[in-house]
Design a protein that fits this description.
The complex is a heterodimer. Chain A is an all-alpha fold. Helices cover 81% and strands 0% of the residues of chain A. Chain B is flat. Classes of the chains: A mainly alpha, B mainly alpha.
Chain lengths: 53, 305
């Protein structure tokens, strides 16, 4: 999204940055959770294959 | 938040909760619950991590379908009071971003389901997303008052998916679950559409009260609720569940019929407007949610305890 600082009051810029920070942290949380999930799935699957062989 | 910020809310971009709202979390909670019950009552033990991931896939798949629905329906959502604040309709998320978000999540959820469970569950998940997006949203919703009768099948998939994730096949019990949700959907949505009919009319969506009138809708709500009562008892009659479920299904179903009867008996004027501000329809809508949670909960208790 383009930031149109020239039209925005300081209050609006602060709000924009607050929302952007919120989105970034949410995405960080989702990516971290996804990494943990994939790691856990890999461990379970490896264990399953280990039992098969 | 100041008035200036409220006025420029869409210009300032979406919040993280807007992206969550794009996935229709209320609908997702229902789908997660019925999907988890389908998985839990299956006769095959699944590793807890894989089971939780499979339910997560069902949730993400449903959320993806919801996001694509909000992208496609942004024009009608914007003119309906109930949906005007949705992130795409309100302009906080760009339509293309919502579509991309939905498509990526849909593909990811199906692929992940294939990895953690099996091809049958992944195919059912893909079918449920496709059914909701193409059959319900794009084809039926704006064309026929039977939109939610046929389209309701999309919401009935999760117990089938949950069962298939654990067992790798389709059996009679999850098909009965499918039938229960299928017959539950019309009285649930028509109760809502009775008191939101002006919204649907303004948006040009041919919901039953808009096309056939409130009186006809009241009759249909009662008929479908009456059909749902014996359908919900089938798992007991066919020996898939015990007396606890049978008694619960009977009591919950009888109460639902009572609520539907109140909707049927609600007084209305010549224009079809309820004289009670649709109090019975609002009560029936709320009860329908309790009904589904309690019925599936009773089945899980009966099978697992």
């Amino acid at each position: 999204m383009r930031i149109e600082h020239e039209h925005w009051s300081p209050e609006m810029v602060a709000e924009f940055k607050r929302r952007q920070r919120g989105r970034n942290f949410a995405l960080l949380g989702v990516l971290a959770a996804f990494c943990v999930l994939i790691y856990a799935i890999a461990v379970v699957k490896l264990h399953e294959y280990g039992q098969m062989w | 938040m100041s008035d200036t910020l409220l006025l420029n809310s869409s210009e300032l971009g979406a919040t993280a909760s807007d992206w969550l709202a794009l996935m229709k979390p209320r609908v997702m909670s229902l789908v997660v619950f019925t999907g988890a019950i389908g998985l839990a009552v299956a006769p095959v033990h699944m590793n807890p991590i894989l089971a939780v991931t499979a339910v997560l896939c069902i949730a993400i798949g449903a959320g993806a379908a919801g996001a694509i629905n909000m992208w496609y329906d942004r024009d009608i959502d914007a003119v309906m009071k109930r949906t005007a604040t949705r992130p795409v309709a309100a302009g906080r998320i760009e339509p293309g971003s919502a579509l991309g978000f939905g498509v990526v999540l849909a593909i990811s959820s199906v692929l992940l389901m294939a990895v953690v469970a099996n091809a049958v569950a992944a195919a059912e998940l893909a079918a449920s997303i496709a059914f909701y997006v193409f059959i319900y949203t794009m084809w039926l919703k704006r064309r026929t008052p039977q939109n939610i009768v046929i389209g309701g099948a999309a919401g009935a998939f999760p117990p089938l998916i949950g069962w298939a994730a654990a067992t790798g096949n389709i059996a009679v019990l999850p098909v009965l679950f499918f039938a229960i949700v299928f017959f539950w959907t019309p009285p649930h949505f028509w109760s809502l559409s009775l008191y939101a009919s002006e919204d649907y009319k303004r948006a040009g969506v041919p919901m039953l009260p808009v096309v056939e009138g409130a009186r006809h809708t009241r009759v249909c709500i009662f008929v479908y609720t009456a059909i749902l009562l014996p359908v919900a008892l089938l798992p007991y009659w066919l020996g898939f569940s015990g007396r606890f479920y049978g008694a619960s299904a009977l009591a919950l179903g009888a109460a639902f019929v009572y609520y539907a009867w109140a909707v049927l008996r609600d007084q209305q004027d010549a224009a079809g407007i309820s004289l009670s501000n649709d109090a019975p329809a609002r009560a029936a809508f709320k009860y329908s949610l309790i009904y589904l949670f309690a019925l599936f909960g009773a089945c899980a208790i009966d099978r697992l305890v």
